Amino acid sequence: MARTEVAPASQTALKRNAGLFLATCLIIANVIGSGIYTTPGFLARDLGSPFAVLGIWIIGAVLAFAGALSYSELGAMFPEAGGEYVYLREAFGSIFGFLTGWASFIAGFSAPIGAATIGFAAYLSHFFPSLGPENIFWTVHFGPLSVHLGSAQMVALIVLWALSLAHITGTHRGGQLQVLLTVTKAAAIAVLMIAGFWLGRGDWANFHSGAGGILPEGVFRNGSVSLIFVLFSFSGWNAAAYIAGEVRQPHRTLPAALITGTAIVTAIYVGLNMLFLYALGIEGMSGVLQVGEKASLALFGPVATHVVASMMALSILASASAMIIAGPRVYFAMAADRVFFKKTGKIHPVYGSPATAIVWQAVWISVLILFGAFEPLIVYSGFVLVFFSAMAVASVIVLRHRRPEEVRPFRVPFYPWTPLLFIVFSVWILAYTLWGRPVESSMGIVTVLVGLPLYFYWKRQ
Question: pTM of this prediction?
Fold first, then answer.
């Protein structure tokens, strides 16, 4: 198959000044959000044993590694900005590349960033109660839609635009901010784990299995739903792929960042789950939403609530910053191929960043924040985002078959079993979601397909 006749983003003026450390920090920050502090309680309730809870995180890590290794081959093969957009464009054609890019713009990055900035304001209200989401001081109605402006929305908009402007300064200066946020975030988690095991009031007997044994009946009944929660908590391991056009020595740096970042996240996730078990035990964790806060309270007393609120705010801020970096690289690559708004393909004359794409993303997120529309988009888009990730990994197999002569600086170990493992589990999640949440899944598909008229318009232009 001949290479698609497009103007890839790697042929534009993006500067390759991002190194391994920044790329790895991008993955760590993007993956570790609020999920690890909330989902373990539901896993404990549904699985019923410490062994099963820790084991399912290991299974999730294996699947994340399968995806990371597949993206490593694709990223080294196509060291361009855009991630899945580039891989689907090369393997399946420009229309599939466009659809994944459109999904990223409408919901994939924009909705989680909006939710993260509102979440940051919510945790900040722990220290400043007037910043709580319930403090609304202006509302206007547009038919069935309403625009709300309150303290939380103001904080969210300020954070959004401050981070966006910081990242307009390029991957060097903006990257320094990202590294600072990520290192502080990881260091805080490490201190929490060390202090918890060393000084905290926990009990090692909590790791013993109960009457149901190491694999209670709930493991087989609820394991599938639990694994979906785990895999969503691991989502974001592919973040470094989006800045491939700005990474130095991408054929080496991208695989190293994807593998190293996923490994560090795995160690943190397993360590935190062990800490929660040490503090609360499987019964104490069971069904608790804010399990991180409850575990810290049990380990250290009331002062821990302030520490956890600070950690959560920092964690969410670092995650939002990472997504603000990654998303615009997709829209920039699409504009370079002339299937998106033309101005988003412009490079800042001083900073060498996709500044216009960053601004457009911030404008759309601002609309979502004011209308409060990011939550349904997150629900609706989950199905299609899993679908496109599976297609991206399938690109490894398609391109091996269609373009065997292509230079591959990195090759997936244990091919084809590694990408097939990821694809099979993704198809299973898609089938389960489509069966269990047909309305949301269908709405997600519709959300993506509404971009098709724009695609054909830009292709005609």
Answer: 0.88
